[in-house]
From TrEMBL:
It comes from the Bacteria. The chain crosses the membrane at residues 64-87, 133-152, 197-225, 237-256, 262-284, 291-309. The keyword Transport applies. It is found in: Cell membrane. The lineage of its organism: Bacteria, Pseudomonadati, Pseudomonadota, Betaproteobacteria, Neisseriales. It is a multi-pass membrane protein. It comes from Crenobacter intestini. InterPro entries: TM_pro_TauE-like (IPR002781), TSUP (IPR052017). Keywords: Cell membrane, Membrane, Transmembrane, Transmembrane helix, Transport. This is Probable membrane transporter protein. Pfam families: TauE. Belongs to the 4-toluene sulfonate uptake permease (TSUP) (TC 2.A.102) family. One of its GO terms (cellular component) is plasma membrane. Its main location: membrane.
Length: 313
């Protein structure tokens, strides 16, 4: 073999080397390779959404204790006059300001459902349910709640916080100014023959509200029953508990089916809410509504201040 046909490396001697560069397969583009942060819902599932954007462990632990206390007080209030969502929902929004709204609502509805099951069990034993009114309300309300839950992901979240703040202020003002409403039964404004139609219409309206929003639903439904059917507040609350918890369960299943829930937070707060539910039912049996009222108003004022500051700051 002559030099003209030998490999060039052999002609150059042992110092020459052959380097072969093989083509590398292209890596698939990912958010991290493109310099994009993971979606918020992935951060929520991975636990990367810190309380108030503060990663300090002591702060997070303190916030967990606060959420547990809020859930307990919400359970006490939810077992009686309602209002668990009024304190729990803004507390969750304050604690997880970067979490998507459907996750917050799904978490809140799971917490509400855990204590609500205990409330419904008790009120079914002690309250006279007006089935001619409630059955059509349940049919239309459950369907409307699922529809309302399905709309949350399609709506602009910017409207939610100001609307919730307005609702908080209005409910606080209403509770402070109406102390004697529904103490006794009165003549119904809606006659018996019109009750099924009124139940269907009211059920669709309140079911849509419960699916999309939720806070103070028991209070709203109870007030409607007092006004429309002349119920005493105690019986109105029992009927409202059954309706609202059924609508909440339907909306909750929608959120859970789409993976929109912070389960660790929901289970912690749910356990505290169930404990509060037992206490609230005992207080309701003893007629100690004054203490419940004070606790509820106190937490409501704190959350209005925190929530208003987070919006205006």
């Amino acid at each position: 073999m002559t030099d003209t046909v030998r490999p060039r490396a052999a002609r150059l001697g042992s110092k020459a080397s052959i380097s072969v560069v093989l083509p590398q397969p292209e890596k698939p583009a990912t958010p991290s390779t493109l310099g994009i942060s993971p979606p918020l819902w992935r951060q929520a599932r991975a636990g990367h959404l810190y309380f108030g954007h503060c990663p300090h462990p002591f702060y997070r632990m303190t916030e967990y204790f606060y959420l547990a206390a809020v859930a307990f007080i919400g359970g006490v209030a939810g077992a009686t006059v309602g209002g668990a969502g009024l304190v729990q929902l803004p507390a969750l929004l304050n604690a997880f300001p970067g979490s998507p709204l459907p996750f917050i609502l799904g978490t809140n509805k799971l917490i509400f459902a855990l204590s609500g099951a205990n409330n419904v069990r008790r009120y079914l034993q002690t309250t006279r349910i007006e089935w001619p009114l409630l059955l059509p309300a349940l049919v239309f309300g459950v369907a409307a709640a699922v529809f309302g839950a399905s709309l949350i992901g399609k709506l602009d979240e910017a409207w939610f916080k100001p609307v919730l703040l307005v609702v908080l202020v209005l409910i606080a003002g209403y509770i402070l100014t109406h102390k004697q409403l529904g103490e006794t039964e009165s003549a119904p404004a809606v006659p018996d023959r019109a009750a099924p139609v009124a139940g269907a219409a009211g059920g669709a309206l309140f079911g849509l509200y419960q699916g999309m929003f939720g806070p103070a639903a028991i209070s709203f439904v109870s007030l409607a029953l007092v006004r429309a059917r002349g119920m005493a507040f105690a019986r109105a609350v029992g009927n409202a508990q059954l309706f609202v918890n059924a609508c909440n369960a339907a909306a909750m299943l929608w959120f859970l089916a789409h993976g929109q829930c912070l389960y660790e937070v929901a289970l912690l707060m749910g356990a505290c809410s169930v404990a509060g539910s037992f206490v609230g039912l005992k207080l309701a049996e003893k007629g100690d509504s004054h203490l419940i009222r004070l606790l509820f108003i106190g937490v409501l004022v704190v959350e209005i201040a925190r929530y208003g500051w987070s919006i205006l700051a």
